[in-house]
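Tokenised fold entry reproduced for absentees:

. . .
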Amino acid sequence: MKVKTILVSQPAPKTETSPYFDLSDKQKVKIDFRSFIHVEGMSVKEVRAEKIDLKNFTAIILTSRNAVDHFFRIAEEMRFKVPDSMKYFCQSEAVAYYLQKYVVYRKRKIYVGNRAFTDLTKLIKKHKTENFLLPSSDKLKPLIPEELDKLGVKWTRLDLYRTVVSDLSDLEDVFYDVLVFFSPSGIESLFHNFPNFKQNETRIAAFGNSTVNAVTEAGLKCDIIAPSKDNPSMTMALDKYIKEANKR
């Protein structure tokens, strides 16, 4: 079966230089984007129910831009002035750069990891005397608490936002040759919206081991997997698959 249409379960790229646009032009395929999940902030009432005093913390671990947004949102709504002495441990350069939306970068103590959380733990380990706050969603990767517990540091998780299934009912009669997923939540959303979904000739692409596992546990076949040694990105994996499929 040739590939002519692809649905990526993420928001459309905000820049014109996305590799997905290059892939679309190169392989002459139609690529659409749609968020299968979205984030909703928890209310101040819900956060207060967690009974965590923001004044007690000297450092914050930020794993995503959502964590940044919702920490500062809640701080403002609770009228908590974040002290200038606060230390920020950011999982990636992208998160650290985004932090500039809320703080004067050069005047703060900011430590930056190299994308993987295990890289960030090396920096956290050097500051074991701090009291760390981890702003989180309701769905936290088990690796994060496991790694923090291993370090023996004092840390507290604070749920500030939740991952919610998006309404995809308008896609009920729309069919794509390939569906691309990046998290188990995307698979959950697929079956929440379409409980009777049958894969048939649809190819499934999955990024990351947890997503691949979610695909197979749902009884679906995973045709395209990334990252891999040969295909470190999803677009590279799609490109290779389309080349082979469209030869036939």
In short: The chain has a mean pLDDT of 94. The chain has two domains: 5-36+166-245, 40-163. DSSP finds nine helices and eleven strands in the chain.
